[in-house]
Task: structure prediction
Amino acid sequence: MGLLSGKDVADALKECMKKDVEALKATGVTPTLGIIRMGEEPNDISYERGATKTCESVGAAVKVFALPRDASQEDLLKVINQANNDKGIHGVLLFRPLPKQIDDNAARAALLPNKDMDGITDGSMAGIYSDSGAGFPPCTAESVIKILDHYKIDVAGKDIVVLGRSTVIGKPVSMLLLKKNGTVTICHSKTKDMQKKTQAADIVVVAMGRAWSVGKECFKAGQYVIDVGVNAKPNGEKGTCGDVRTDEVESLVAGVTPVPGGVGSVTSANLVCHVIEAAKSAL
Ligand code: NAP
Result:
């Protein structure tokens, strides 16, 4: 299999989404994403551009609520409430990290879990851990599952090692893999013998945010490696790189996602999938 292209996964998702949007539009509903942004942070602008392009490509709409970076918490909560109460907005993406004058917990708590498209509210997180089906998982964590599904990489009964335990990626992806009957080991910065664990696994999900930090010494033939990391290249070159040294791993393992062109390519498509699901539920 070699490189597991995220673009191919995103393209397949978009084809399904186009049909769903067409069906929704026939009932008079245009799935609409509300984006709440404070200021013009380059990462936010770039994610907004990608999400807008994906929405447009499948016929969904986007409404941007742009606040100045120095807006008050009251202003932000007002906009969140406005988006919550707007029946024409089916899902909301709130860019974080928020500026320092904003209490992140208060902002997360203000967003309705059923409008939370990126699994940031406690209600959405509870849905993942309780299997209640409430809310949506974080888009990136779920993109890992969509990649495995697309390439028909069976998870049930497999030994899976997840490197990283953040609430955005490591923990939710571990729960999603567990739900698919994988046997999951979560590693973090205090884990002992991490290399032994990754070498023994069938699937390794790498989400440490450590550029090019794992290479062939951590893997063996037959494994699948999903690299979630997006980092500045440590050699000063322009562009981003993953946590995995893909060039030395690609010929060893059964399949590895590249960076760029892997998990990141699926994330914004998955975000729009959530908006469409939310629009269907609102019908
Ligand atoms: P994070 O909050 O910094 O968490 C990193 C995790 O990795 C922590 O649990 C940390 O352990 C663990 N870790 C760090 N160094 C380690 C080491 N040497 N050995 C073992 N574990 C180690 O990062 P994050 O938000 O989860 O993001 C992870 C990566 O994914 C970043 O590169 C980020 O840019 C990328 N990302 C990609 C997308 C996408 O669309 N592809 C979206 C979001 C994020 P401790 O808990 O012990 O500190």
